[in-house]
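MODEL INPUT / OUTPUT PAIR
PAIR INDEX: 1
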Amino acid sequence: MIKRDPKRCHAMVMARPGWYKYQCARRGVVEEDGQLWCKQHAPSAVKARADARTLKYEEKWDAMKKQAVARKEASRDAEQMNRLYQLAKKAKNGRLALNVDWTSGECVINGNYRGKDMREALDAFIKSRSED
């Protein structure tokens, strides 16, 4: 067992190659839980650094998730516009009437095909075209 110097920091640190541990060489200046700690190894300082690191990581992760959602929505919107263009080309009269009620969020295509969003209305429209 290692003899501890009561005036030095209570933390045990790893030697460079990682073969053994030894008591931190700094003198203890902060007393927590009845032990002396240096400013680096004090439990409150270790927790504060870990919390700051976690907060920074979570902010970065949230930004990445928002970007992914935005890319997915942009891709879905582009896909829907392409589907609308393809349907307009195949329509009998060459036109495709799309009405969106922004208050209820309902989407209507050519007056007959309704859906709670554009994708649902397009799916109903495409299904009816494939039956013809």
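PAIR INDEX: 2
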Amino acid sequence: MNDFENDFHGPGFLSPKRRKSKLGPTPTIIVGDCGSSGELDSLVEDIRTCWERKVGQLTLEFREVNEMSSNSALLAYELLRQKSPGTTIITNAMSPILGPGVIVWLAGDQRFIRSTGWLYFRKSRKPRRTSRPPWFDDEGESWKVRETDDSPDFGAVFHDQVVQIIDRYLPINEFANKLIVPSVLAEWGLVDRDQWRSEPISPCKPPATPGENY
């Protein structure tokens, strides 16, 4: 397989690791967690390239359960908002989205979600640790200095910004810490209402052990 084939997997498809390849008129970007600087850089470059090429339509697919950090989600959301007039962004939640990545999905002009999919986000970030971590070898109290010093909790700042954006689409007080199913999203006009009209709307419990980034 040559370099072109490695980077280009069919008409309009952008690999997460793509750097320089020809773009189709309707490219698709696979959105991951952006847990590494390389993955985040790749997403940023892919979106920028699409805007430079003035594509008429861009599709973002969440193929795996997404647990993106607040900072990565805010960056992606900002870049998507820089699209040219007339460009359509399609976001497709093929798997559940947990936490800040929800705003990337919300940035779409047309949104799709798997019939058994859902969204989940917290209203507030988990507080700083108040007990010694079991993996912390030092028997002293130095961990408290790290966790309770006077420096700002920048993670909380980013999380609050994410919450403010989500609140433009869904009322935080009503939907935070709950599983948001397709029928509820349809009721709020975030996905096609007719597609999910027959699905029952019921309150859902959050995951038993949600992760740290939500």
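PAIR 2 NOTE: Residues 1-21, 197-204, 209-214 have pLDDT under 50 and may be disordered.
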